[in-house]
Every structure is written in C-alpha cells, then in structure tokens.
Amino acid sequence: MFIFPDLSNDLHAMQDVGIVISPWLAGLSSEGRLDAALYSDMSTRAREFAHVHWTEEERVRVLHHFPSPDRIPQIAVHEIVASTAVYLTHKRTGQLEVDEPLIDDAMNRVTQFVKEQSFGTLLQLYMLVTSWENQNALHHFGEIPEREYVLGSWHRPWVDYSLSEELMFAALLGNVEVVERDGHRFVRLTEEGEQALERASETLEQAGYFKQRLQFLRISQFNLYDAYEQVADEVWPDTPQQRKDFIQFVGVQPGMRVLELGCANGPLTFEGGLADAVQPGGHIIAVDPSTGMLARARTKQRSLQIDWIEFMNGRAESLPFDAGSFDVVLGTGFLHFTDLKLSIPEMTRLVRPGGVIGSWVSVK
After folding, report:
1. Domains detected in the chain
2. Given 69, 185, 280, 299, which residue has the most CB atoms within 10 angstroms?
3. Using one digit for the tens of pLDDT, what is the confidence trace for 324-353?
4. What is the DSSP string of 234-290?
5. What is the residue range of the signal peptide feature (predicted)?
C-alpha cells in the first residue's frame, strides 16, 4: 500500500512561500487566462524545470518501487505556476488575466520552495491534492464512467489532457478499480481508496487547505464581476430593483450602522441603494475577501463622493468588531461561499440585540 507521508508542515511552507495548487483557478487551456504565446512559453519552462529536478533519486524517495508517471511532474509544475500567477494577479488587481512578469514571479516562488524543501515534496503535494479531487468525486458519485473519468468532465473539467495516466497509477496503488457492467466500464474507489481519501482529507483539513480551496473557487467563478453584472442584468433584468427591495425589506433606515458582507465591487452598496438608505448620518462597513474587488468599490466611492462607507478586507467567519456593533448585518449571494458554522454565529454576534440579519440568496 502506498501512503503519503505527513505533509502538513509542507502545506504550510507552501502557503508561506505564496504558491497555490489550484489548477481550476487558472483555466489551463490555451484559451483560458493566459494568451497562447505565454501559455506555450510557460509549458516549455515547466517541462524543462521538471526535467532538471525530477531525478532518479527524487523518484525513488517519493514513489519507492512504483513506476513514475511520465507526464505528471511536468503537468504539476505547469498547473502550480499557472494557478499561482492567477492568484497573484487577483490579489493585486482583482482581475484574472496573467502577464509575463506574473509568470516569472510564480516561477520564482516555485523555485524557492523546491530549494527549501525539494521537488519531490512539491510533487507529493500536487499528487495529494489531485488524488483527493479524484477520490472525493468517486466517493460522491459512487462510480464514474471510465471515459468521463479520463476526460475529467465530471470532476476536473479544467484539464485539457487525459487522466488515463493518473487512473492507471491510482489502480496500481490499489485505490481505484475499473469494473465492467452491461458493456460499459466504470471507475470506483476500493476500500483502500476510501481509507486514502480519509487520510488525505484529514491532512488537508488540518492544514487549512479546504478553506483556501473555497476562496479559490469563489475567485474563479465570480470575480469577473463586471462581466457577470452585465450578463446578470440581461438574464435577470429585475435584479437591480430586487436589490433595492431587499434593502427595504430588511428595514435599513437613515443613521443606522450597517455591516455588509461579501460586498464585491459594490452592486448592493451603490447601485442597490444601501448607501442612499443609510444616508450621511449613518455608517456602512463593507467587507470582502478580495482586495481587487475592494479596489473597484473604492473607485466607485470616489466618483460618487460618498464618505460614510468604509471598505475593509476580511472574511465573514471572523471579523475584528465588538459584539453588538451593528444595527443591521446583511449581504447578497455570499453565504454559500463561507463556512456556515462560523459565519452565521459571527453575524449573530455582531448585530445588536433587536437588530436585523439579512441574506439574499437564491433558493433554486
């Protein structure tokens, strides 16, 4: 049986260096968030980096007597550099498009980690995360048609390469099996695979990976907010008015102290009428985990010359305010991106006795 070593400290070291393993964040096809020339150059650099650092000594240390999957080291470097670059540009600008200096920065961070830890450790972390994605999907679905598994269409739709090598390696380790039924082939977890998933989940949970993963998913799907709002206004033309109706329903009044969670670039704060409802005699603290979104919101604020709003970087699960600090705590479309066991008690703590907590979410 192949068992990953305890990688908890290595996961923390990876976070300290500022690299992330989040391939879905990068949209890795050449039509994703990197232009074709940059994508090709990064692919070449990843291949050369893996060729230099994936030595026979490292292979034996990491895989012992198991054969080395040929493409995985190169793919690992490629995906880690790409997702790190996207994460960095999002932190700095709120956008997701990557340029060459960001690729250089990401590559330098990966190089630093390899010097301080090892290339084998980097690969182990990548294999831990990707095997968790695969095993968790199999645990959820029970089984996946072999063709869909190899394409990644059910569980890793961002990949532009076959997962056949990963499937063969997982089968060799004894974590998955391929069964045939009615002329069709399906992939499912073995008992050893269920145990491997449990161990990986425990390691990733202790290292805080799942909270980070939730943040990456939010960035990936919803942080192109300008385009999203434009599409939303076309598909759901009643949304702007519904935001205003929500504020009225919650009962926001002039002079209130309001906490808005998940403010993004201010669609509720400004266009939705929250600032107008509170008026200059009140105060709004608007919080979002994205510094890029906050930068856009502050640009709106300056153009509108509204000084009774304070924008703050933070997360709904833990905020630096005294209990009962707000008359109203509200937000739209943010709760499902939070850890509900932490965010809801925090909202309850922050609202004054007799105050109001409001969240507008879709129930469909």
Report:
1. 8-222 (no CATH), 226-360 (3.40.50.150)
2. 69
3. 999 999 999 887 678 889 999 999 999 999
4. HH-TTHHHHHHHHHHHHT--TT-EEEEES-TTSIIIIITSHHHHH-TTSEEEEEES-
5. none
